[in-house]
Amino acid sequence: MNRVSTPAAAQPPAKTPRGRRGRPRSYLKVVFSPGVAPDKWFTRFDRRTPGWAIASAKLDRPLAAVEAGSADIAIARFPVAGVPREEHHMVRLYEEAIGVAASTDHPIAVMREVTLEDVEQEVVLYRTPVEGEVEPAAVRSALAIVSTGAGIAIAPRPLLRGLNHHGVAHCDVGGDTQAADIPGTQVALVWRKDRDDEVIQQFVGICRGRKEGSSR
Fold it and tell me: Which intervals of the chain are annotated as region Disordered (predicted)?
């Protein structure tokens, strides 16, 4: 099984490993947003798809790799701008919880959930934008300041978990977040229509929960 973590490594390795019966393996190149946890899907694909394996990379802008042709399919956080629907397939997978991050000596460090009213007196260093996309780089920068106790950050909880900044704790935000103009985020599969084939569809089906041996 091939697991990689940089854009350059998303290409198949120079020495192609062989499957159980000695056949050379081909690679499905998958890129994904920080905070997405796709390992279970990768494992199932490798097990169920003879002659194929996943080559993966975590990228702040996974859709750019799909557009450039260096990746076959992206698991991306939405909303995101600049995805021509007429050229791409998109399959929504799930909605993400909203989270709040604060320093580890803040009371939320021992809480499972807070409401926005609980933190309304805090300095907000980052919040999920009402329009536009969540920028992982901006969240990283905010968390560096959050760790000092200077304020909080409100962002998708899986992203906060995935970035895992030292000195930062996080928990879910409950209550009516829409009334506070904090939009939700979703995770979706995106691939070019001209790249669609049975191997892509196999991976899409696995991500959507299709059981082994079942048809589309």
Answer: 1-24
